[in-house]
Design a protein that fits this description.
2 domains; 3-stranded antiparallel β-sheet; Aspartate Aminotransferase, domain 2; binds 4'-deoxy-4'-aminopyridoxal-5'-phosphate; binds glutamic acid; 388 residues; alpha/beta; 12 strands; single chain
């Protein structure tokens, strides 16, 4: 059957494809260790589940307003006030079916044919396709030679008279890097000067290690805040990936337009998921810190294990739950990260995500959202397979 050109040109999300492949192989009884996971391995905390169950029992099974309930928008504003010291109102907020959906709505609302959107590379796999679906053109900035950090000079050089947006994802998926505050301040200044909208995807805000500090450009000044769209959600922070709740906070006119778009696609996000999200945002936050500590221990472990394998080079991630080693020392043998990933699946029964989908064929991504035992076993298998 003939498919539209738009859909024909959309690649499947490589992260979700790997996860599905691992599940399929495991269900066939194969002993695979999957480093593909882009989600916490923990369960959603009980008090959040109970709030959703109570909502169901109370008959909260109907549509809500398209952009989410006022109660949830208020909870989001409260969380942002606490976490960012920024003051927003419900009219600044749209609740969508995951942060991915918020991003999709935002790109389609802000960008169109002829617009350029600056996208630091390595990038999360879904940004370029989403920009292209909107008709825009992603303009990549290679950060592999600047320690995976985005510099203001690089941004200045990438700006043209078509530039309409820039994506900031710090901590970053897949590199785990936090961009430097000084650079972000200079980048924000450029955005104000050239009327560029800033998409700040802060989904990993609560997963930061060592002394690294989270910084969002919207806190610089009201002028910068006016141009900033904060993307947030509960998937990573509260282990709620399957609940499909994310949100965007920013200029109310844009939020209103995004809500119109959402009204013609999904309507409201799932009603009882919204109720669970209120419990997540307003309830006890101690588990968030506890789990962050567990991730930090795993980060330390996986970094040691990767550094122990000849031919890989790794910049220690400061946040999120991914490592993104370079395979420089194995390029002669494999030629690309995809070939290495195929080799590892076949010979080590280990699944990793090759870097091509993140904008680098010389890197691959290993998630550490898994037990320490699996991390050790998986990296031992990789080391051994590469040695033979
Ligand atoms: N942004 C980034 C950088 C991500 O890694 C993810 C991962 N799923 C998302 C957005 C979307 O998250 P969700 O749709 O589950 O809220
Ligand atoms: N964002 C996660 C990842 O990078 C989940 C999968 C996806 O949405 O792409 O693996």
């Amino acid at each position: 059957m003939k498919l539209s050109t738009l859909v024909t040109n959309i690649p499947a999300s490589p992260t979700l494809t790997i996860t599905a492949k691992v599940q399929e192989l495991k269900s066939q009884g194969q002993d695979i260790i999957g480093f593909g996971a882009g989600e916490p391995d923990f369960d959603t905390p009980d008090h959040i589940k109970e709030a959703a169950i109570e909502a169901l029992n109370k008959g909260k099974t109907k549509y809500t307003p398209v952009g989410g309930t006022v109660a949830l928008k208020e909870a989001v504003c409260e969380r942002i006030r606490t976490d960012y010291a920024l003051s927003y109102k419900p009219e600044n907020v749209i609740i969508s079916c995951g942060a991915k959906h918020s991003l999709y709505n935002l790109f389609l609302t802000l960008f169109e044919q002829g617009d350029e959107v600056i996208c630091p590379a390595p990038y999360w796999v879904s940004y370029p396709p989403m920009i292209e679906i909107a008709g825009g053109t992603p303009v990549f900035i290679d950060t592999t030679k600047t320690g995976m950090k985005l510099l203001a000079d690089q941004v200045e050089a990438a700006i043209s008279n078509k530039t309409r947006g820039i994506i900031i994802n710090s901590p970053s998926n897949p590199t785990g890097m936090l961009f430097d505050r000084q650079e972000l301040e200079a980048i924000a200044e450029l955005c104000v000067k050239h009327d560029i909208q800033i998409i700040s995807d802060d989904i990993y805000q609560k997963l930061i290690y060592d002394e690294a500090e989270f910084f969002n450009v919207a806190t610089i000044s009201p002028e910068v805040a006016e141009k900033t769209f904060i993307i947030q959600g509960v998937s990573k922070t509260y282990a709620m990936t399957g609940w499909r709740i994310g949100y965007c906070i920013g200029n109310p006119d844009v939020i209103k337009a995004m809500t119109r778009l959402q009204s013609q696609s999904t309507s409201n996000p799932t009603t009882f998921s919204q109720e669970g999200t209120i419990a997540a945002l307003m309830g006890d936050q101690s588990l968030v810190e506890e789990r962050r500590g567990i991730f930090e221990k795993r980060r330390n472990l996986i970094v040691d294990k990767i550094n122990d394998i000849p031919g890989f080079e790794l910049i220690t991630p400061q946040g999120a739950f991914y490592t993104f080693p370079s395979i420089q020392g194995h390029m002669d043998r494999f030629g690309s990260a995809s070939r290495l990933a195929e080799f590892l699946l076949e010979n080590a029964h280990v699944a990793v995500v090759p870097g091509e989908g993140f904008g680098s064929k010389t890197h691959f991504r290993l998630s550490f959202a898994m037990s320490e035992k699996a991390i050790v076993e998986g990296l031992d298998r990789i080391k051994q397979a590469l040695n033979t």
